[in-house]
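Student: I would love a firmer grasp of how sequence relates to backbone shape in proteins. I am handing you a single protein, as its sequence and its fold in token form. I am told such tokens are a discrete way to write the fold. I hope you can help me see how the letters and the tokens relate. Take your time, and here it is.
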Amino acid sequence: MPTLILLGVGIFALLLVFGLLARYLRLWLQSYASSAGIGLFDLVAMSFKKVNPTVIVRSKIMAVQAGLGDSSGVTRQALEAHYLAGGRVPLVVQALIAANKAKIKELDFKLATAIDLAGRNVREAVQTSVYPKVIDCPGKNSGRESLDAVAKNGIQLKVRARVTVRTNLNQLIGGATEETIIARVGEGIVSAIGSAERHSDVLENPDMISKTVLARRLDSNTAFEIVSIDIADIDVGGNIGARLQADQAEADTRVARANAEGRRAMAVAKEQEMIAGIEESRAALVDSEAEVPKAIADALASGGLGIVDYYKLRNLQADTDMRHTIATGGTQGVIASAQ
């Protein structure tokens, strides 16, 4: 019975060893043949730490074959730590290899892992650093075909530019993206054209835009370094200055017309007030004239006015009416009154 137990334990041990060898022997042989320095027990330990040994071994082999040893920071422990942090280990190693071949000194393993954990594609960043990238301004997704700016003489220019950039690895973490570059370059182009005295100056020397924009260091605090700004096309638009002057003149005309209409309305209102005042005075005069016969009657009744005096007053009134008729009706009125 003890013999059977020992035999069972031996068979289990053999199966366990065979399973381990079947799983890790090929990886260990690859590591040993390439001098990666990853032992069999290290491979077993990776499984307990929830690390994919295949990823680590192949990444380490790539680094060693490319000349990136432990001195460059690409150690087994560092690769395992980056894997456990959720990083893309093969991508980081490929980026380091590309940077080493391109002699980019500023990218080390620590910076590469930081860029990767920040969510940026570190391999693409290295490729853009080696082979500069061209960005259209305005952007293709902006819905605009050109940047519109107006020179001091009022002529509109429509500009399309191409910005050549390369990745600034030291500012890739926290640096602004392509949208910021496009916005800043667009602002610089509009400002450069707006400061030109005549649109013909810009058409004669388009490089004045590039020089002005580059002098403003628009790539500060961004993930890119501007290599060059090239003006792809310039079209002449409308005369915005003349249009604005015409609109201003039209607005001034409307304001003047409104002011004149206001003054006319005030004059009409004043005229109506004066007419009303005249009518009030005339009514008061009629009321006063209505009191005259009463006063005359009272004077006759009291003896204060004689009959002779009354007739003299009537003659004086008739003479006054005749003079008024002559003044208002002319000669024909006099002849008619004489007849």
About this structure: Confidence is low (pLDDT under 50) at residues 333-339. Strands lie at 133-137, 147-150, 155-167, 224-239. The first strand starts at residue 133 and ends at 137.
